[in-house]
Amino acid sequence: MSGSLSSSKGRPLWQGRALALLGIILVAFSLRSAVASLSPVIDHISEDFPISSVVAGLIGAAPPVCFAVFGLLTPLFERRFGLERVAVAAISLIAAGLVLRSLSVDSWSLLAATTVVFAGVGSGNILMPPLVKKYFPDRLGLMMTVYSTTMAVSTFVPPLVAVPIADSAGWRVSLGLWGAFAFFALIPWVTMLLAGRTDAVAAPGALVKPSFDEKAGDDRDAGEVATGPIVTSPANPKVFGRLWRLPMAWSIALVFGASSTLAYVSFAWLPAILIDVGGVSASDAGLLLSLFGLMGMPCSLLVPVLIVRFQATRPVFFFGIACGLVGLAGLLFVPTVGLPLWVAVFGLAPMLFPLSLVLLSIRSRTPESAVALSGFAQSIGYALAAVFPLLIGVLHEATGSWQVPLLLLVGVLIAVIPAGWIAGRRRTIEEDWERRYGRW
């Protein structure tokens, strides 16, 4: 795949589909900025009305819950109304929720607005990759890289600027600002719908990459693999039912759950933890959360290459676990010494997320089984991830410190080690079944 925006293998990215390109980039930015922009200004919000640890935990649990629920509902809406119309509805929810969040008058209205935001984000997570495939089938690898890189940028930019804006203009402006980006993301898609330009595809003869087949040696590039399989239809019930009996399926689900747990606990609680145990200001805590998010960018680009091309699943997994444990140990025992270092090292632990997404692709032989494995792993993984932000808040409120919550995260990392070892076996779920029960 060429790294340029045009090549001899297909038409330029912008030819006849510039609006789709702009729309995908703007939506990708909104999907993550909606998650990363709230926790850095929680202290500012608390000056206007109290936010208990339980409510803060519920806000932290909202993303995985909404992602799980709307991940199941969105394909049903898409089949009835079409990709673009449902995408417009999802982006509208994000924009409206972000504006409502900036107008919150108490902790429960803040929670309600946040739920609206993540209902839209949950749908957008499902819709954007199929939209990429619809409008850019000849540039899948490049566009998936653009999409995932934009999401990585939007993970570390909001914490970087949220507190300075809140200091100068107030937390309502700081939160509402991200609603403007979501509103602008609506414009390309609404324009395409009104103009009837929703049938854009690649030029005749353009190269469309086949799906990944590990046994056939297909060497799909990192940008495409990093997105994981796209669930646009319900999984085959027969295939899905078999997964409950397979250690490989469970191991991937647990790795996915651990990676999601680290991410959503960090976005919900890391600034508060750094303020309390590290003695930093709210502004510095926001910068450190930005550093945490920034560490995910090289991981999202390198991890798929290491796994697909070099079969380095276990080395990547154990390196991520080690980074998580070292970072947590630093926060537990010497938080005031080298705090940025501990945050940066801990920020490498979420490399388990791109790792788990790649495994969803390469641990299945067919698209049908990939869809089933993706649904299975995401259902279990998001269910686990929804529990821990709330549990962390309850433990903090009960103990009055962050020691027990941080030890809980240490326990999560240690507990998932056997699952990572099993997921590192070079076999598909079909092979796992055949070894145990005979023909798939």
From TrEMBL:
The chain crosses the membrane at residues 54-74, 86-104, 110-128, 140-163, 175-195, 248-275, 287-308, 315-333, 339-360, 372-396, 402-423. The keyword Membrane applies. GO terms for molecular function: transmembrane transporter activity. It comes from the Bacteria. It is found in: Cell membrane. Pfam families: MFS_1. Residues 16-427 form the Major facilitator superfamily (MFS) profile domain. One of its GO terms (cellular component) is plasma membrane. Its main location: membrane. It is a multi-pass membrane protein. The keyword Transmembrane helix applies. SUPFAM superfamilies: MFS general substrate transporter. InterPro entries: MFS (IPR011701), MFS_Cyanate_Porter (IPR052524), MFS_dom (IPR020846), MFS_trans_sf (IPR036259). Keywords: Membrane, Transmembrane, Transmembrane helix. This is Putative transporter YycB. It comes from Microbacterium hydrocarbonoxydans.
